[in-house]
Amino acid sequence: MPDPRRIPAPDREGDPAADLALDLAALVKAGVSGFAIHGGEQAARWAGVITHIRSTGVDCRFLAWTNVGADQAALRDAGFDACLGPAGALETWQHGSLAQAEATRLPTMAYPERPFGPRLAARVRHTPLLHRAALRALRLAAAAGDGLLVPMGFEVAAREPAQQGPAADAVSEFRWAQQTAPFDLSDEITATLKAPHGDAAGSTATRVLSGPGEPVLALFRTPIAASETSELILVNENLRQPARVMPAPILRAIGGEFGPFTAKSADAAPGLHSTLPIMLDAGETRVLTARRAAPVAASVARLPEQALERAVRAPRLAIEAVTPSAGEPRFPVKRIAGEAVRVEADVIADGHDVTAVALLWRPADERAWRQQRMAPLGNDRWAAEFPLERIGRYVFAVEAWRDVFGTFLYELRKKHAARLDLSVEIEEGRLLVEQARGAARGSLRAELDALLARLAATATGRLDLLLAPETAALMASADQRPFAVRQDPAQPVDAERRAAGFACWYELFPRSQSREPGRHGTFDDVIARLPAIRAMGFDVLYFPPIHPIGRKNRKGRNNSLTPGPDDPGSPYAIGAAEGGHDAIHPELGTIEDFRRLRDAAAEHGLELALDFAIQCAPDHPWLRDHPGWFGWRPDGSIRYAENPPKKYEDIVNVDFYADDAMPALWRTLRDIVAFWVGEGVRLFRVDNPHTKPFPFWEWLIADIRGRDPGVVFLAEAFTRPKVMYRLAKVGFSQSYTYFTWRNTKAELTSYLTELTAAAPRDFFRPHFFVNTPDINPLFLQTSGRPGFLIRAALATTLSGLWGMYNGFELCEAQAVPGKEEYLDSEKYQLRAWDLDRPGNIVAEITQLNRIRHANPALQSHLGLTFYKASNDSILYFAKATPDRGNTVLVAINLDPHRAQDADIEVPLWEWGLPDDAVMAAEDLMRGERFAWRGKAQHIRLDPADSPFAIWRIQPAQEV
Q1: For residue 791, what are the contacts with CB-CB under 8 A and spacing of at least 6?
Q2: Tens-place pLDDT, residues 184-225
Q3: What is the distance between the alpha carbons of residues 225 and 200, in angstroms, rounded to a whole number?
Q4: Which residue has the higher pLDDT, 444 or 303?
Q5: Taking Cα atoms as reference points, which of 738, 787, 793 lies closest to residue 760?
Q6: What does the alpha-carbon distance between residue 860 and residue 764 come to, in Å, rounded to a whole number?
Q7: Alpha carbons 713 and 801: distance in angstroms, whole number
Q8: Which of 266, 351, 594, 603 has the maximum number of C-beta atoms within 10 A of its C-beta?
Q9: Contacts for 431 with CB less than 8 Å, ≥ 6 apart
Q10: How far apart are CA 107 and CA 76, in angstroms?
Q11: Is there a contact between 774 and 821 (Cβ–Cβ < 8 Å)?
């Protein structure tokens, strides 16, 4: 009998389809219930056979044993009940060859290995790996198909392909495979067949959700017929190692139609969560199921007519991406009084009408808005500037509307250029003028009357009148601004005094200024130092706390816990019997002495800055008078301050949110600042503001600056960047930075780019201190005199604000071993400084400050551009004013021990000059003038001479 699985050749006598149908019917009567048809792709040739046999009333099933990619619709139309295919073979999905299976129209019988084909056991020899591979193939076939066909011998890992010969041979081969089997999967097969298949059975669409080469294969099966359940199949393709997969891409590919996904097997791992990774064991196949998910129900307006009314009245134009901005409208951007604020905004409108945009601004103490039209930059971006004429708060807003007369002019000019008849358009223009006149008042109305009269008096000149610039300006003044929309809320701007953005700070401990070992310094000793400090070019003299110092838990030398009888203690342990934050340490002098110092400093061109440190010694009067301002422990003690690994046993902190502290403590701290402002202090360095509440600072600074907008607060906050930025937003004008720890070219370039090119540029002003009483940088400990010059050059040229702590000019670097702390720190003892110490850098600091004062480009951290230097040890950059009227080039050798060379380029392109142009240059440290010819130059910086160079450049003037 011919093989009934293959259609007879067409040259067989009679009707081949009818003859084959009779043969198959006979087999059915003998007990056969169905046939797997080889060559099922030839669906049209099999259609007649299947139709004929079913017309005889014979009940049997036909499975198309097809190649990958067969036409499923044709098979269905031919009468096939299902397909028999390789959906259970991992390599089939890996190679993407079942792409058409996404549109499956027939149920699929899947097999774990190809019947009569190469065995899985022949390819995987290692028994543990073979066992995993077999289980994976079995479970994938069961999950990816609608039925399961297990070739005889698969369960015992037969290595030889099944024979299609006599049955006796097949039985013999099977028995031999059983006897040599490394394992038996019969129980697993039984359990798989008994497991419920779920609602996804039947005609399904299967999609591959994973990409080529991914460690986990992800298949998604959804029923074609309406059903509420889908299945997700995850397969670890690696037989040796577990695999980790993030569900988010998979869930995104599913698109929210089904979910949540839970494990199909009760003993399986948890389900799918978009943010939690899935771990699959080596070779594991996991099946998850999910029901169809209802979409999120949209909120339906209770009163639809009200929603419609809101829609028709909603703004027709949109204002977006307004700059400058501090991120939230309530926070001001920062500028210096006298500057112009450039405002840009996106204005988007529907249609093709002309849009008009205006910038509105006013000082906060005025009610009337000033305004000017903004200029288009292209791509719906607009720009304008407004001046900051006084110190204090300004606000600005962008307003946009549809420009009716502007649209008319735009169309009129186009039609006029095309030589069209404009009689109707001219009358439309006259009517627009007439409408504007009806709404105008006063002199504006009179001007429009005059224009209408001129239009009526001429027949030939009406077009010229309508197109005249004077008419456009007049109509702009009379514009009723239809569909106007305004930025709301308006953006505040703080226009601060010059010292908020440009200053040179010098820090000293007044008690160490006697220059006599063992004698406590006084304010009069500080007065004696003023000429020398001013001569170095500093304009701010900053003191650590000058208040009475507590005696309880007083610290000794080098932060020891055993002070001697003459140890003065740390000035940050504020408060004693003599008073607290509004008192002066008696050994420094009296309030009258302080006032004499203040006035003497002003005569020398120096402004005083005080330290505002909200902390108390254990014997501060507040602990006696206001115990409710502190947090007490159950045993009646109070916890001392810590900043791990540092401990401050001589300091306790207030509790801002203790019941008794709200608002009494807040008000008292405000009054302390106000007291010192009343004594002429307008610069405050705030100690660790990040450890105090943001709302407190926002309120206090607004209150103080509301009384005197010239008060400036510097945040000493070495903390996380976003916390530092938040402090700037709530009101701090300046901030300490990470500059202290940025030493390499990459570190400096990255950090300064963040501060000058990203969002912080509009509200965060960096203050570059090269050292502090708390920080003796490691770089300075090992770099010698050149290292101090390097850090001074970096600070003075990169930021408008820089500062140094007394001793830096003397190259003081003695450190506590292994720490960034000064040995014999004057935080804990008196020091008598040798201000003429050999090797000092007083002359260089003096010149650097002189250069800063003479060059506006160096008076801000903005205007910075880094340029390429061929050596990673040389930092090369420019600082320039917006118009490039003042441009300074700086090159700094960051290596304090060796001379370094570099090829650099003079940025001729910034002036639009050719590569061979000549630039006039001046070496600002040496006072030498010369010409730079051409773009390419070579420099050498030797720390033994000077590790940096500063040049002022401009295009050479032709003679």
Answers
A1: 770, 777, 779, 780
A2: 999 999 998 887 665 444 567 888 999 888 999 999 998 766
A3: 9
A4: 444
A5: 738
A6: 12
A7: 13
A8: 594
A9: none
A10: 10
A11: yes
Closest listed residue to residue 471, CA positions, set 459, 462, 480: 462
Q: For 549, which DSSP code?
A: B
Check: CB of residue 454 under 8 Å from CB of residue 363: no
* CA angle at 346 for the pair 344 and 347, rounded to the nearest 5°: 120
672 contacts: CB under 8 Å, gap ≥ 6: 581, 582, 612
Given a contact cutoff of 8 angstroms between Cβ atoms, the answer to whether 348 and 402 are in contact is: no
Helix 694-707 to helix 664-678 angle, to the nearest 10 degrees? 40
Element (H, E) at 610: strand 607-612
Question: CA–CA separation, 68 vs 95, rounded Å?
Answer: 12
Instruction: Find, among 503, 467, 534, 436, the residue nearest to 682 by Cα.
Output: 503
Distances in Å between the alpha carbon of 351 and those of 316, 347, 402, 404, 486?
Answer: 10, 13, 10, 13, 19
DSSP secondary structure string for all residues of 46-88: HHHHHHHHHHTT---EEEEE--TT--HHHHHHHT--EEEE-TT
Largest CA distance in the chain: 130
pLDDT the model gives residue 301: 64
Say how far apart CA 173 and CA 177 lie, in whole Å. Answer: 6
Residue of 706, 634, 644 lying closest to 670 (CA atoms): 706
Measured from the Cβ of residue 8, the count of other Cβ atoms closer than 10 Å reads 17
Q: What DSSP line would sit under 489-542, residue for residue?
A: SPEEEEEE-GGGTSEEEEE--GGG-S-STTPPP-HHHHHHHHHHHHHTT--EEE
Beta partners for 62? 35
Q: Where are the alpha helices (DSSP H) in 145-185?
A: 167-179
Decide if pLDDT at 936 tops 90: yes
Q: In what order do the strands lie in the sheet with 34-38?
A: 34-38, 61-65, 82-85, 108-110, 147-148
Select from 456, 410, 415, 463 the least CA-distant residue to 437: 456
Residue count of the chain, please give it.
959
Cis upstream peptide for 531 (omega within 30°): no
According to the model, what pLDDT value does residue 614 have? 98
What is the chain's alpha carbon radius of gyration, rounded to the nearest angstrom?
A: 42
- The tokens for 557 are 């030398």
Q: Classify 661 in phi/psi space as left (phi over 0), alpha (psi -120 to 50) or beta.
A: alpha
Q: Which CA distances in Å does 448 have to 405, 459, 463, 482, 558?
A: 14, 18, 16, 19, 82
**Spatial separation of the C-alpha atoms in residues 534 and 892, rounded to whole Å:** 26
Is the pLDDT reported for residue 676 higher than 90?
A: yes
pLDDT at 950 over 90: yes
Residue 540 phi, psi dihedral angles, 5° rounding: -130, 130
Measured CA to CA in angstroms, residue 667 lies from 646, 652, 703 at distances of 30, 19, 10
Rounded-to-integer distance, Cα 571 and Cα 547, Å: 7
Cα pseudo-dihedral 293, 298, 302, 306, rounded to 10: -170
Which positions are annotated as active-site residues?
687, 716
SS3 866: strand
Given a contact cutoff of 8 angstroms between Cβ atoms, the answer to whether 762 and 324 are in contact is: yes
Contacts of 522 (CB under 8 A, 6+ apart): 510, 513, 514, 587, 588, 589, 593
Neighbours of 478 (CB within 10 A): 22
Q: Are 59 and 35 in contact (CB under 8 A)?
A: no
Average pLDDT over residues 63-88: 80
Taking the CB of residue 574, how many other CB atoms lie within 10 A of it?
A: 28
Lookup result for tokens 């947090």: 631
Interacting residues of 169 by C-beta distance below 8 A, sequence separation 6+? 163
Q: Is 715 helix (H, G, I), strand (E, B) or coil?
A: strand
- Answer for the pair 547, 581: CB distance below 8 angstroms, yes or no: yes
Instruction: Using the structure block, give the residue that is written with the tokens 């250029």.
Output: 417
Condensed to tens digits (0 to 9), the pLDDT of residues 458-472 reads 888 999 999 999 999
The dihedrals phi and psi of 649, each to the nearest 5 degrees, come to: -65, -20
Nearest Cα neighbor of 511 from 421, 605, 584 is 584
